[in-house]
Design brief:
alpha+beta, five-stranded mixed β-sheet, four-stranded antiparallel β-sheet, 9 strands, about 35% helix
Amino acid sequence: MKGQFQHVFTFIMLIIIAGVVLLLGYKFIFDIGDRVCEVEALEFKNQLAKDLKSYSSYGSFHLPELSVPCEAIAICFADADLYGDETEGIYAGTATFTHTNPVIQQEVRAPSTPPSNVFIITADDNVQPLQLFSEKIDVLGEVLCVNATSGRFHLGFEGKGRTVTITDES
């Protein structure tokens, strides 16, 4: 009788250990997927910031094709003139600023720390500030949204000297 109880106990312990290993493995695999998306978003942000600095020469025109970070379907740019500088507070024109997306509207009216004038829209219509603010961003109108095509954002960067006018080239 004692031997049978020992086998049952061993079997139960093996099941518990296997369950813990499977649970930890599952968590590890999905954490890696999240980290890949975080790295892609950081690389995208760094490349965009570099392009904005590089392409501001007056009269230059560039067509960078930026790879789309995880789950992004669109990118939106808010004109830097909507924001005031740190000493002035919010630009006076934002009192009348309205946008169909409340996240973009809130970020323009009351910028977070750090402020952002670039936003990623995901497949589930979630709008995420990219935590990138560039006073070089100039768009025709107040906000420009560009949809991703074939895994890339097709943008036009026209250098104006102090700013870069961004256009949709898709």
